[in-house]
Write a structure and sequence with these properties.
Order of helices and strands of chain B: HHHHHHHHHHHH
Number of domains of chain B: 2
Distance between the termini of chain B: 60 Å
Oligomer: heterodimer
Largest sheet of chain A: 2 strands, antiparallel
CATH architecture of the largest domain in chain B: Orthogonal Bundle
Structural class of chain B: mainly alpha
Largest sheet of chain B: none
Radius of gyration of chain B: 27 Å
CATH superfamily of the largest domain in chain A: MetI-like
Distance between the termini of chain A: 42 Å
Chain lengths: ~325, ~300
Amino acid sequence: MSTTTRTDRPSVVLVAQSSRWGEKLIQFWLGFCAIASVIITVGIVLALFSPLPEFFSRVDFREFFSTDTWAPALATPSFGVWNIVVGTLNVTMYALIVALPAGLGAAIYLSEFAGRRARKVLKPILEVLEGVPTVAYGIFAFTFVTPLLRDNWPTWLPGDLGDPPGIFSAGAAGIVLGIMIIPTVASIAEDSMSAVPRSLREGAYGLGSTRMQVATKVVVPAALSGIVAGFVLGVSRAIGETMVVLLAAGASPNMTLMPNESVLPMTAFIGRTATGDISAGTDVYFTIFAVGALLFTMTFVMNMISIALVRRFREKYE
Amino acid sequence: MMSTRAEKASTAARDTTRRIAMGKRSGIWKEELFKYVLILCIVIAFVTLLALIIHSAWLGRSRLDLNLITQMPSTLDPETSGMQSAIWGTVILMVGVLVTVVPLGISAAVYLEEYADTERWWNRFIELNIQNLAAVPSIVFGILGLAYVVREGFAFGPVAYAGSLTLAMLVLPTVILASREALKAVPDSIRQASYGMGATRWQTVWHQVLPVAVPGMITGTILAMSRAIGETAPLLLVGATTFVTFNPDSAFSGAYTAIPVQIFQWASRPQPEFRELAAAGVILLIAVLLIMNSAAIWLRNRYSRYDL
């Protein structure tokens, strides 16, 4: 009886069916290590969200979400989180103006135009660009890009937009942040373009298309979900990046979308508060967790969208 | 007669082909312009990288000497101030990250590649979770460390290992993903042969699969460490004190700082001398990173021809 069932089994069960306890113990340990990553996520959610009831017992929920003055450390504090959310959006917007076209362009070049040798040189350099520490980008924004902007500011622009930026500006932080996330956007977009089947391209060439037409009218539309995934992940990275905005965007919670003013993005608030003296249990201490929870939620939603888009793309072509 | 006619026809055909191939029909300048715009997109990134390095080297040129490594940080005497305590802090931090993340990350990768049945929902959930964790902002890990490593939970207090553990959690997804790639590259025939000889699953993994996958895993680990070395934001939250004039006592006691934290502290001071120090620190950090990255790339190329 038992022999008949054995022969029915697939060949994978060449694995010795051992009941050694050592083998089981090892498997248990390996499984535990895999679950550790889930424990970390649970830890993040608990760390961020469990102080929230205490925070909202001190700060009015409606004040937090519907007013726009941010001054948690003042004697008469105000907690309008919109202020720093707009600060984050401001910097992110300028980052995207740089990163989306440049990232997409770089991806199209690498996937459709660059020869084998050019790719072999260019891709590692993009990796190096991704590996430069963020604090280095922050100092670069602060000591190089900001003075550059200040000296060359188009002062003929109308209204407040014509004022050159001070030592801190959202624009300088945004531009550097944008360049910093080009590799993120480019590498995901390039991966998805390379996965577009050759037959689609050859069909288009056969009908007499030029390289540019194939790139813009065939490859980009076919790889669109992968490209959008790269964009979304780029946005998520821009929102969550700390050091560049901490060093270059400033510390004044101005609620503005202007590039020439100083703003206080969410991550800069957390970083700046952490470097000061904070004692556990104060209102400001709890504010770190509330802002962190909001930040985590925003990036979590985007990461999930990005992951879902990549999966959909893979199912389509692989 | 016949031959000239055929020649004519074939020349005409070749001409047409060439014209089509060169895109003559639809204005070649548009094609060229498009290509140059694309190249410009890449050039922007590279020029920035170059500008960053040259600018930092120029700004910090007077401080790129042995004082930077041998002297302690000083607020009074920026002329001779160095970052010895930060360098030691980073060394201790990185050793802590390494001993924490390598066993954990490689074990998790082995489970997911060699043991897990990917049809099961919990294994898919673990994979999804790792993908998401890789994109969580680094400062959020700092908050996690502040809450459960420094103050409650592990309650280590603001010591170097608290920083190590926080950074280890941050780079864990990188190590897992890289190790999985290395394991995936091991051909299945090796596993089948081992099973055929009567080896158990763990014997197969330990004696056959892991030795082949090790170079890839080392590459992934180096890249993860080079990410950890430059991380600043989470360390600000878990107590890498920004001004320490002595080397850390041990991983579990005493104040500590790290190279990027020290750079940040200098950069946020108004005096130009400290900006120069910060720039010199950036060059030091980038030099260390370049060495690590080159080692990783060399390893990858050295073993990528490992035909099986």
